[in-house]
Design goal:
Blueprint lengths: L22 E7 L11 E8 L4 E9 L7 H7 L3 E8 H11 L3 E6 L3 H14 L6 E3 L7 H13 L3 E2 L10 H5 L7 H10 L17 H9 L2 E4 L2 E4 L1 E8 L13 H23 L8 H23 L19 H8 L7 H18 L12 H21 L2
Antiparallel strand pairs: 1-2, 1-5, 2-3, 3-4, 4-6, 5-10, 7-8, 8-9
Length: 390
């Protein structure tokens, strides 16, 4: 959300009508280092030198301090708002964050500019500015796409790149290379619906592809078809602003390490020929407890939220919420016979899951593979030893 610094960059009185010299542009801001900014940003800029107007319209404003922010975000019930403020404030903000700004000045008639300005000011009214945010389908970039389509109608032909043949999941992957743990968590939460191919129009949920669509778009003015973008300028730049710095793949490193430990413990138990209950109960309780928590999260996102792409999540094949109960029984002093059958059946299913890994209708995160392998090894050993009293 904007801070009190905005008052330093106060705007003059807004005109009711733009002058013929007014210009309207799309601003594309490069990704930032914080998670909320890692996908970049889009905004609309209106400049009118006659009225000393230089105003940004930003559909990506939210407030961390809103009551219940994290609960609303998790449940898909978070509202974003359209904010409007001076370009100088935006430039100050992105300079601090070392993020680049690219401006596409648009070829528009005075009537088109006035229609856009009128719509944006109407949308900025307190009763109109809030909207229910959806990361893939209704965000700061898709709102701008919709504003131009709504106000310019058939005169505008956005460029739809035929080479855009990726799923929603694959579109966001490159932007998360700097946040490997978050990437793993997001992939766990996204269901099979995120693996369908996104159309070129739907790809505009990312600012980079909104920029691409505007760059190739055309506008019809007085019977003539012209490029929609009259001029492209880099307003702010820093070395490496167009690159997302990668981080070590910690999720892969941790979970492959977990698989190695799981295998080593099973091998040592077989070599030692220990009897009664199998050893390493605490390790297995933690391992299966983690899988159970993942399953509980998946169920919550599927049935208790308004997110459109979290249902139909095939990660439930291995992330059983019942593992929370099994984990508690593993460290309980009371001995139970049924967990042996439970682990044996689960191990059999994990063999099936691993055998069909490339063929399931949902793409699993690569780091889930060693996790499922670790679960298969420990459930197989534990089920066998509990049933046979090895």
């Amino acid at each position: 959300m904007l801070t009190s610094r905005e008052s330093v960059f106060a705007q003059p009185q807004l005109p009711g009508q733009l002058s013929p010299q007014a210009q309207i542009s799309l601003l594309t801001v490069t990704p930032g280092r914080e998670l909320y900014s890692t996908f970049g940003h889009s905004a609309i800029r209106i400049v009118d030198p006659q009225y000393q107007l230089d105003r940004i319209y930003n559909y990506g404003t939210f407030d961390f301090e809103e009551p219940g922010f994290y609960i609303k975000f998790t449940r898909g019930l978070l509202d974003y708002v359209l904010s409007a403020y001076s370009y100088s404030f935006a430039e100050y903000q992105y300079t601090e964050e070392r993020r680049g700004i690219i401006q596409q000045t648009l070829a528009l008639t005075p009537e088109m500019k006035q229609a856009l300005y009128r719509f944006l000011e109407w949308n900025y009214r307190p009763e109109n500015r809030r909207y229910r945010y959806d990361f893939f389908f209704d965000n700061c970039a898709t709102r701008i796409r919709d504003v131009f389509e709504k106000t310019l109608g058939e005169n505008l032909q956005l460029y739809l790149n035929p080479e855009r043949q990726r799923s929603f999941r694959r579109y966001i992957d490159p932007y998360l290379v700097g946040h490997p743990i978050t990437h793993f968590g997001m992939d766990l939460g996204l269901g099979a619906r995120s693996d369908r191919l996104a159309s070129a129009r739907e790809a505009m949920f990312l600012p980079d592809y909104l920029y691409e669509s505007f760059a190739g778009a055309t506008i019809t003015i007085e019977g003539q078809t012209l490029p929609f973008v009259a001029r492209t300028d880099t307003l702010l730049w820093f070395p490496g602003a167009d690159k997302i710095p990668p981080a070590l793949p910690w999720s892969d490193i941790i979970l492959w390490g977990l698989f190695i430990v799981a295998g080593a413990l099973a091998y040592r138990a077989v070599r030692s020929r220990k009897h009664s209950s199998p050893p390493n109960a605490w390790f297995d309780a933690i391992l299966f407890g983690m899988a159970g928590l993942a399953g509980a999260m998946i169920l919550f996102l599927w049935f208790a939220t308004d997110h459109k792409v979290t249902p139909d999540n095939w990660n439930l094949l291995w992330a059983w919420p019942l593992h929370l109960v099994a984990a508690a029984l593993l460290i309980s002093r009371r001995k139970r016979r049924w967990p042996g059958w439970y682990f044996a059946l689960y191990a059999l299913l994990m063999v099936i899951v691993l055998a069909g890994w490339p063929f399931w209708p949902q793409e699993f995160h690569p780091a889930a593979l060693p996790l499922v392998m670790a679960l298969a090894v420990r459930s197989g050993w534990r089920g066998y030893s509990m049933l046979t009293k090895f």
